Amino acid sequence: MPRRTPRTILDRLRTPRRFPKFLMGASICVLVAGLLSPLSQAAAADTTVLAAEDHCGNQCSDILPAGQNGNATLAQILLNQAFGSQPAHADDQLAPYANLASGYSGLTDAKINDFFRDASFGVPADQVESTLKPAGRTDVTIVRDKKTGVPHITGTTRYGTEFGAGYAAAQDRLWLMDVFRHVGRGKLTPFAGGAPSNQGLEQEFWRHAPYTEADLQAQIDNAVAKNGARGQQALADVKAYIAGINAYIDASDSGRYYPGEYVLTGHKDSVTNAGTIEKFKETDLVALASVIGALFGSGGGGEVNNAISLLAAQSKYGVEEGTKVWESFRERNDPEAVLTLHNGESFPYATKPSSPQGEALPDAGSVAGEPLVHDRTGSAATSTAAKTSAAATAGALGSAKRGMSNALVVSGKHTASGNPIAVFGPQTGYFAPQLLMLQEIQGPGLSARGASFAGLSMYVELGRGQDYAWSATTSGQDIIDTYAVELCQDDTHYLYRGTCTPMEKIEQTNAWKPTTADGTAAGSYRMQVWRTKYGPVTHRATVDGKKVAYTTLRSSYMHEADSIIGFQMLNDPDYVKSPQTFQSAVQHINYTFNWFYADSKHTAYYNSGDNPVRATGVDAEFPVWARPAYEWKNWTPTTNTADYTPASAHPNSIDQDYYISWNNKQAKDYTTASWGNGSVHRGNLLEDRVKKLVTTGGVTRASLTGAMADAALADLRAEDVLPELLKVVKSSPVTDPAAAAAVTRLSDWVAAGAKRKESSAGSKAYANAEAIRILDAWWPLLVKAEFEPGLGSDLYTAMTNNLPVDEAPSAGHGPTGSHAGSSFQYGWWSYVHKDIRAVLGESVQGGLAKPYCGNGSLSACRDILIGTLKTAAGRTAAQVYPGDELCSAGDQWCADSVNQRTLGGIKHNKISWQNRPTYQQVVEFPSHR
Questions:
Q1: How many angstroms separate the CA atoms of 482 and 550, rounded?
Q2: CB under 8 Å, gap of 24 or more: what pairs does 530-533 form?
Q3: Can you tell me the distance from the alpha carbon of 918 to that of 67, in angstroms, rounded to the nearest whole number?
Q4: Does position 368 have pLDDT exceeding 90, yes or no?
Q5: Which residues pair with 658 in a beta bridge?
Q6: Per-residue pLDDT tens for 766-789?
Q7: pLDDT at residue 636 in the model
Q8: What is the mean pLDDT of residues 692-696?
C-alpha cells in the first residue's frame, strides 16, 4: 500500500484541479483583478526605526522558513494554486534555509547570512518596507523590513506595544491562529471541514485537554492571582494583545483583505462580504497554549503500555527474569547514554524504587481503550475515520512525544573570540503557514526579537534580548502519571478517598458539511470524556479481578496559562541580566523543556517543568492505585497543585565547556519518560562533532553552524550502528554475490561519511543512493529477525508499541510521519548496537539482559544479517519508497524531502531533507550591559 501523507485542513487545495473549472480559464484573471482592488494595509515609508540597546554587533542571525507572511487573500490563494505564485514574504526564507545543506562545507562567519538573516534590533532607513500605526494609534508603530517582512514593533506605552504585537500577529497568522484555537477547543471540524486529518487533530488534543469554557477562564484567574504584579501585568498584556488582533479583524473585514481561507471554508462571502470572523477572547489563548504544550512540552504518559509490555516479558520469562529483560530495554539510566550535563552531576528523578508500592498492573488481556468518539454519522462513520481515531488515541496516550529541537552552545573558553557561541532552535515541524512567527518587540519592560507561536506572541518565546539569547528543546521528563480508580456502583462512579463519587461527563457534538476547501462529505460525531479528580479516563481494565478505570494526571493539567510569567521575564531587560536571572525566569515555565542561554561571558542551562514529588515507593513507569498513600505529595485535586521538586533538583548548569541537546537524556539519574535513551541517540551526532571542535579550540559561529548542518544530514543508523553490523558480516568472507555487492555499497557509504546528501546542489538525487536504499530496506528486516525469535511475537509487538523500530526520513510511521524533517529520534538503534557489540565480544555497559542476534552466536547472527541483507538488497526503490500524494513510487529524494504541510491555502516547494531546527539562531555577543 502506498504511504499516505497526513492530510491537514486545506490539503485539498494543493492542486488546481480542486477548484471549479471556470477558475482555470482566462476568467481567473478578471476575478483576481477584482479581488486585488482593496486598499493596501500599509503604505511604504522610509522612516528609520530607532534600535534599542543592542550588544550583538551584527553577530546575531536567525531563519524561519518558509516566510513571515502566513496570510493570503482569496486572490493570492487562487494565483498560488493556479500558477504557483507566492505572496510577498511567504517563502523568501525557504531557499536560504534549504541551501545550507549544500553550502555549509565552505561556510565562514562572513557567509552566515547567506543562509540566515540578520537578527539585529531595528531596521536601517533604506531597508524599511512599510510603516503602520495600527488602528490609528499614536503609541505604537509596526515597521516591516524589505528583506523578510518581519514586524518590528515599537511602543511608547505597554498597552500600545502589546496592541501592536497582536495586530502584527493577525496580519501574519490570523487564519492559523483561528485554526489552532479551534483545535484546542476540540472544534476544528465544524470550522475547517471534516477531513480525516482534522478529525484526528481535534480528537488527539481534546482528549489531552478536555476543557470547558469555565476551566479555561479559571486557569487565567489562577495564573493572575498567584503571580502578584506580574500576573496583573500579564493579564493587561493579554487584553491589549487581543484588542490588537480584533482591531485587525475589523480592519481586514472592512478592507476585504482578510485571509481567503475564510471564503473557501464558507465563513465569508467573497461577493457580498457577508459572514463573520469570530473575535478572539482571552480563553482562546489558553486553548492555543494547551495545543502547544501538548505538542512539545508535556513529557510522560504511556504507563499502561509499559505495564502491558512488562506483563508480556514476565509471561515469557517469569516474573524475576522478565522484569530484568524489560528493564534492560527500558534503559532508565543507561551508562552509555549521551548527556547534556556531562561532568558527572547526578539529578535523581523518577528513578526505579527499591521496593515499589501501590502498583496497579492490569490483569492480562483486560485492557480496553476508553472510546472518545460516539454516534458517528456520514463521513465520520467510514473505516478511514475509525483508523484516524485510533491513530489520534495512540498519539495522545503514548510516551513517544514529539520531541525535536536541538542546541549547540560553546563556552567562550573554547571559541576564537573568547565569547560564547550558540546555534540553537526549536524543531517544530514544517507547515504553511509556519506554527512560529518572527517579531521584534520594543516597549516599556519589553526588548526582544525572535520567534513565538502564532496567537501567543505577546512575548518572544525563543530568541534574543539586548545582550543575551535563549532557546529550548523538548526535555520529556515525566510529569504525567496514570492512576487506577476503583469503580463502584457502575462504570461511571469511582472510589475517591473512600467515597463513591460520580465521574464528570464532558462532551460536545461536532458536525461538518462540504466546502470549497474541504469536499469531505457531511458527517458528525459526539466526543465524550469522563473526568475524575485523578484526570480523564483513558482505559478500562481489571486489576486482581476488580474493575478499574485508568486515568492520566499531568502537573500542567488545568495550568496551561502558568508559563506566561516565565516568558514575560525573558522579554524584560530589567529582569534577565545574567545566567542566574535567566535560570530564575525559566523556572516559572511549567512545561517540560531544556533551556539554553548565552551572553558575552556566560552560558547556562536549566530543565523546566513542574516535576511532582511522588509518594515514596511509587514507580512512575506504571499505573498506581488512586489512593491517598500513592498520590503526589500535598496534592490538591480542586486546583491540581502539589509539591514539586525544587529548582536545585532540576538539571542545571552554568558555564559548562559546551552543551548539546537533541532531546537526549539530561543528566545522570534523571529519567525521561520516552524510551530510547541508550548507547545510540541522535544526540550523539551533535556530541561527537561539538566535542571535536572544543578539543581543537578556536570555535567560530561558522564552525559550530557547520557541525549542526553536518549532523543534520547524517543517517544515525549508518554512522553509529552500521559499522558494527558490517563487522559481523565481514567476520568471514562474504561469498554470495548479491550480499557482497551490498556490503561494498554500505562500506563505501560509511567511508564517505554516512550522509543522506544530494550528489550536487539541486540534483534531487543522493550520492550513495543505492546504499541508502539498502539500509532503509534492511533496518526493519534485521531488527525483526534479530529480536523477534528471542522475544517471541507477543513481547516483540509490545516492545515496539513502547518504542518504534525506525524513524528514517522517508518513514511513513512514528511520531513525526513523512516529509517532516525530524528523524532518528525514536528507534531500536541502541538495542541493535548493544546486542551486536555483545555478539562481537566487545565491552558493553548496561547491556541487554539476554543475547538476541543468533542467540549470541557470531556465526548464527551473521547468517541472520546476511539473509536479511540479501532480501533488502533485492527490494526495488519502488518497494522501499512506495510513493504518496507528493511523490512517485521509487523517488528516493522526494520520499525524504521536507514538505511545508498546508494549514491554509498557500503551498510551497519541497526541499531536500535536513534534520535541523525549524527556527534557528546563530548568536555571539561581543559585549554586555
A1: 6
A2: 530/370, 530/492, 530/503, 530/504, 530/505, 530/506, 531/210, 531/503, 531/504, 531/505, 531/506, 532/485, 532/494, 532/496, 532/501, 532/503, 532/504, 532/626, 533/496, 533/501, 533/637
A3: 11
A4: yes
A5: 410
A6: 999 999 999 999 999 999 999 999
A7: 98
A8: 98
The answer on pLDDT for 399 being more than 70 is: no
**Taking the CA of residue 566 as centre, how many other CA atoms within 13 Å lie in the half-sphere pointing to its CB?**
25
**Torsion sign over Cα 434, 473, 633, 501:** positive
Q: Helix, strand, coil: what percent of the chain each, to 5?
A: 40, 20, 40
Query: In the chain, what is the greatest distance between 2 CA atoms, to the nearest angstrom?
Result: 81
Pick from 95, 97, 232, 239: which is nearest to 163 by CA? Answer: 239
Q: Which helix (H) or strand (E) holds 494?
A: strand 490-496
Cell output for 542? 481489571
- C-alpha 562/C-alpha 873 separation (Å) is 53
Residue 882 · residue 1 · CB < 8 Å: yes
- Alpha-carbon span 850 to 838, nearest angstrom: 10
Q: Which amino acid is at 473?
A: T
Residue indicated by cell numbers 501538548: 294
Who contacts 50 (Cβ-Cβ below 8 Å, separation ≥6)? Answer: 122, 154
Indicate left, alpha or beta for 275 from its phi (over 0: left) and psi (-120 to 50: alpha). left
**Secondary structure of 10-64 in HEC code, one letter for each residue:** CHHHCCHHHCCHHHHCCHHHHHHHHHCCCCCCCECCCCCECCCCCCCCCCEEEEC
Which residues fall within 8 angstroms of residue 387, CB to CB, at 6 or more apart? 196
Burial category of 367 from C-beta neighbours within 10 Å (exposed 0-12, middle 13-18, buried 19 and up): middle
Q: 227: how many CB neighbours lie within 10 A of its CB?
A: 18
Report whether 257 contacts 898 (CB < 8 A).
no
The alpha carbon dihedral of 757, 763, 768, 774 has a sign of positive
Distance CA 76, CA 91 (A): 13
Residue of 646, 561, 574 whose CA lies nearest to 608: 646
Give the number of other CB atoms < 10 A from CB of residue 646. Answer: 10
CA distance to 432, 530, 692, per residue, from 362 (Å): 43, 20, 48
Q: Where are the beta strands (DSSP E) in 533-654?
A: 535-543, 546-554, 593-598, 603-607, 624-625, 652-654
Examine the pLDDT at 816 and tell me if it is beyond 60.
Answer: no
Q: Residue 70 — left, alpha, or beta (φ > 0 → left; ψ -120 to 50 → alpha)?
A: alpha
How crowded is residue 375: how many other Cβ atoms within 10 Å of its Cβ? 13
Count of helices and strands (H, E) across the chain: 26, 30
Q: How far apart are CA 188 and CA 788, in angstroms?
A: 41
Collapsing DSSP states into helix, strand and coil, what is residue 643? coil
Cβ atoms of 480 and 554 within 8 Å: the answer is yes
Residue 83's CB is within 10 A of a number of other CB atoms, namely: 10
- What is the bridge-based pairing of β-strands 668-670 and 346-349? parallel
Alpha carbon distance 164, 174 (integer Å) = 14
Distance, CA of 99 to CA of 439 (rounded, Å): 23
Which three three-digit cell numbers place residue 570? 525573558
Q: Which of 711, 285, 329, 665 is nearest to 461 (CA)?
A: 285
Q: What is the pLDDT of residue 868?
A: 98
Type and span of the H or E element at 390: helix 383-397
Residue from 764, 635, 633 nearest 102 by CA: 764
* pLDDT value of position 291: 87
| Non-local CB neighbours of 492 within 8 Å, separated by 6+ positions | 502, 503, 505, 530
Give 93's contacts (C-beta < 8 A, 6+ positions apart). 63, 64, 65, 66, 67, 68, 117, 148
- In the DSSP assignment, the letter for residue 281 is -
